[in-house]
Amino acid sequence: MNSHPTSSPPKTTGLLSAIVVVAALGYFVDIYDLILFSIVRVESLNELGITAKEAVTNQGLYLINMQMGGMLLGGVLWGILGDKKGRLSVLFGSILIYSLANIANGFVQSVEQYAWLRLIAGIGLAGELGAGITLVSETLPKEKRGYGTMIVATVGVSGAMLAYWVGAKFGWRNAYFVGGGLGLALLALRVGVYESGMFEQTKKSDVERGNFFALFTNRARLARYAKCLLIGVPLWFVVGILITLAPEFGAELGITGPVTAGLGVFWCYFGLVFGDFASGTLSQVLRSRNRALQLFLVFCGLMVAVYLFALKGATPTIFYVACFVLGISVGFWALFVTVAAEQFGTNLRATVATTAPNFARGSVIVLVPLFQALRGPLGLLGSAAVLGLVSLVVAFWAVSTLPESFGKDLDFVEE
């Protein structure tokens, strides 16, 4: 059940306000650090003494799982704190933790050290996007918030391209140092960013805030929450399996030249820049978040099929073009988080907007063992095809059964 506060409406801000700029730059550094491991996986593991092809794949998946496990823990932690203590404390606290963890990552001497620091970095990385999207959604006028979150996403995902360039130019250890330094520099931009007025109003009331378990005590609320989580799974199937394991897929497809994970990530995230811009704009033009998401999920399904079954014997250039277009097709990440934020009241909004993307990212922990289990009987391509089909069909169903949230007044609480 929802109810509207009786206090005066909270103040709003403009599209290029300090809040939007800081949220966008925060997500830029977040994506740089989040995706950096996928870019430097092979080089860093080789330097740590892991050189056998199968061992590089298995240890790489282990480290990804540690990072994603940290994001699952951090998603719950930062989400609760965002609703109890405020959006700003999460925005800057998460940046501080992942920046320090990534600086430390540049000094690792063993896979175990690497794994624990990816866990800590994952905890830190879990907070920035949800807090930023919540803050932007609550401070922009309702008819403009889709454009605001589009700016955050479009600027943010380009961080992956910087990660590739820095990793290629300066080596994997220096790439971690740069990521940590960028995060610490971003903390200086705290000046001029203010807390959400909706949160401040709710804070003055006696309504319970940040109760994660309240998402599970009401059947309708739980259904809304579960559907929000499921929408984001296809993106992490694409990034966590298809793109991260681009060298393995390239070999299986008989690509005529070498394929690197770094270039696969670069081109996928370059596509994501355009995809996030297009999906955010489309949701505003269509005046419907759900229809925009449905169109992108269909597009994603077509591109997964192309990636797996239409590239046999292709050149590396054609393969990377497919990675780029595949990136466009999953460029609905910020739109997905925006929908999650718009579905819930102010007292649970940060909890949902922070846990939803991290549980979606964390789905890699489930997808990877399923992928490995199916790989035996179905092969690399067959296993990926089955997982892709299931995740896309479930996500399409989830979008189609969620209430439309475009233009929704967000000044309400969950009771």
Automatic annotation (TrEMBL):
Keywords: Membrane, Transmembrane, Transmembrane helix. Residues 19-406 form the Major facilitator superfamily (MFS) profile domain. It is found in: Membrane. Gene3D superfamilies: MFS general substrate transporter like domains (1.20.1250.20). It is a multi-pass membrane protein. The chain crosses the membrane at residues 12-40, 60-81, 88-108, 114-135, 147-168, 174-193, 228-247, 259-280, 292-311, 317-341, 378-399. PANTHER family: CARBOXYLIC ACID TRANSPORTER PROTEIN HOMOLOG. This is MFS transporter. It comes from Hymenobacter yonginensis. The lineage of its organism: Bacteria, Pseudomonadati, Bacteroidota, Cytophagia, Cytophagales.
